[in-house]
Queue: 2 jobs
Job 1
Amino acid sequence: MCGIVGYAGKNQAAPVILEGLAKLEYRGYDSAGMAVVNGDKIQITKSVGRLKVLEELTHGGATMPGTVGIGHTRWATHGAPSDANSHPHYNAQETIAVVHNGIIENYLPLKEKLVSKGYQFTSDTDTEVVAQLMDYYYKGNPLEAIIKVMHRVQGSYALGIVFADHPDEVFAVRKDSPLITGQNEEGCFIASDVPAILKYTRKVFFIENQEIVHLKADGMHFYTIDEEEIEKEPVTIEWDADAAEKGGYEHFMLKEMYEQPKTVTDTLMPRLKNNDIVIDELNMSDEDIRAIKKIHIVACGSAYHTGVTAKYVIEGIARIPVEVDVASEFRYRNPILEEGAMVVVISQSGETADTLAALRESQALGYKVLGIVNVVGSSIAREADNVMYTWAGPEIAVATTKAYSAQLIALYLLALKFARVRGKLDDKTFHEMIEDLKRLPGQIEMLLSNKERIQRFANRYVAAKDVFFIGRGIDYAISMEGSLKLKEISYIHSEAYAAGELKHGTISLIEEGTLVAAVATQDTLFQKTLSNMVEVKARGAFVLAVTNEGNTDIEKAADYVIYIPKTNSYFTNSLAIIPLQLFGYYVAVGKGCDVDKPRNLAKSVTVE
Ligand code: AGP
């Protein structure tokens, strides 16, 4: 996600900001920029590309004199990477500049209102709306204008703001997106994360939601949204710089697992409006949706596993036939796409060669392609006819977790939208399912809090040679992902099997002590999976079961049980995968593997 750095002090601001942004590069970005206050003017330099471009443009900051400024590295969410879409954004007179991390959910209606009042926009971003709205409310008092903006915008934001007629000051605001401040004898700092200012101070202030910070060279003041000044206690950071990039987590993978509640929220909430599902980026009318005869989903790896899940969910509630392919097969099997077919490709990176090829093959056959993508401006995002972003932020660990969870949410929303439009869901059921989706972030958080118990169990299997994951229906799809998570980072052989298929050969591999993880979240299939657990247990397996709270019958057949909170049976993947992610992670950690960069793997497989 984006990175913010701000400074008000005795030294030149630009070099401090550039150095701070460099410490935030791990967050992933596609463009960078700075605004420095010089006299009564704000100088702005910004460009698409790496920080190096900004450093060269400003000769290391030398072309931007001044001791007060803000800087930004942008991870695109609204508006592809470009110079114009880079931050800072500013008002027409360039007397207010803003940098932003987060998503303004209601930026379109705000933009329309500002345009109707004569404002002109130069970018496609949600952030520029904040800059123009700040201008609209600004009458000389920054705090007053900021508070008015806070009351109007919805969504998540960490903002850094400078005003030309307050040349010695920086303001910052936080709602949902992280923001910290710090101070030393050289000045005061704001940043999205600790690494940016750790060089200057280990005493940082973590800004809480809807708090405002007012920085000057010699000190900081904190306010609430009610304009009350408050005192805050600093926190002393014990981490070293490397650990700080991971937010104190040992690995990016663990950090990203813990970001899943926010990932799910960020992908879900902007698409729930007036108790309905609004997916503008689909560019499909209700008539188009009713005309769909079949959906082809094409992807690789974990993205393919979300596609398998989507087959069960879409066919289950929207009653549209779904065919799922791994992209490397689809692209060479001379696919038959029917009249009225819709193609959906899923890709976190948006650069997977096989998936991109499948997209092009489908378009060559005359079909429009919807891309479900995480990286804005990636090849698949650019070439798809329509794109539904997963807004998970940059995923650094090779083994996907938060992007996977966001893909599931995007697919649930599609399924619900299609079912609703095609009259397959009554109001009551539809709204109950929406409420179930809204509960997922908190339920994921609760499951993540069980990590010590999972870690203790995982430590027993660091020497395992073969691990099997079994399930039926959606539980089979969950098993696929649980198996991949384990094997790709711990290098332990593992495979997922349709539980009913095991007896057709593979059960011969079950020996005394073989670990079999049985996923049993589908109530209609519970008894069937239970009997499969008995089958493998009779042959010596140690059975780990993942099932819904209340299914205590399972303890007759399982040696170790992980319960997940109740949710709609179509959404259980979002919960059951959490303990399986943690299991794979802790086995790999127990083996001393390079969890974030497993051998032989790349984060984006851009070759065949
Ligand atoms: C998942 O943990 C793996 N890193 C891998 O299977 C990945 O899901 C696959 O390569 C697809 O990547 P994409 O989503 O970027 O297209």
Job 2
Amino acid sequence: MKHFLKETDLSPPEVAEVFALARDFKAKRGRHTPPVLANQTWALIFSKSSTRTRVSFEVGIHELGGNPMFLNRNDIQLDRGESIEDTAKVLSRFVHGLIVRTHDHSDVERIAAAGTVPVINALTDFLHPCQIYTDAFTMAERWVGPDGDLLGSLKGRKIAFLGDTACNMANSWILGAGLFGMKIALSGPPGFEPSAEFKAVAEAEGFSDVYEFTTDPFEAVRDADVVYTDVWVSMGKEEESQARIAQMSPYQVTADLFAAAKPDALFMHCLPAHPGEEVAQEVLDHDRCIIFDQAENRLHAQKAIMAVLAQQARA
Ligand code: CP
Ligand code: NVA
């Protein structure tokens, strides 16, 4: 069974198919979408808040002809001690796919191992792969040449990732950079380097040399094609809010910092944004800020990911 728990779970032909389908779904939205999830129900099990991920998956499943079912972790027996494995086995008897947002990354791995339907990681404390495929597609839309080669347009590009460089988005973007042939410079406070656990994953993928870490944000953005940031206080880290905001304030994406990247650099953020913390309002208002294209593309990219997984599950 094919799952999408981390960026590298799809083969190069599957990645190419996701990008081609995302482009096609976007171009034809509202006119023609093949009902690849007809007569199927896909359940979302969420243990954390969500605006974009929840809505884009629910709309996407509906547009592919399927039925979305949202299950808040608190509402099912999982929260009263039923095991992850039994939950995955039972739900697999009812639904055709599971989309899971949770804390421990090992939970999505356990669901995938115990269940018998495709599982999609909709964010864990460790990784957020749906966001990375979407972001890469969004960059490629801007950079693609007359040959139409979306993936080719990413190769050799540089991302600067600023702020909480030890969070799920930073980890995921390192895997994304390796997968898409890009480089990434991370810049955050001392102590926020990628974790030993993540470094082991990056090394196992052969991606140890795609990233570098510096405490100097201006060094990170030099020659960058994209300046990227995320919230300083990820879900689950609320108790550390004050300390994090104090430590990360030198890494705010200000207009000056953004201007130190390439002259045509894009500003990106997975959202939700906290203007005045990780990014200045001036940058959010910039004409090279493409955050709402990113948000929209969650729909198209995730429809493509579900289509590829559903096709594999039927095979
Ligand atoms: N970017 C993202 O995953 O947003 P939500 O938390 O709103 O789903
Ligand atoms: N790092 C953030 C991403 C939100 C989409 C979090 O985990 O809260």
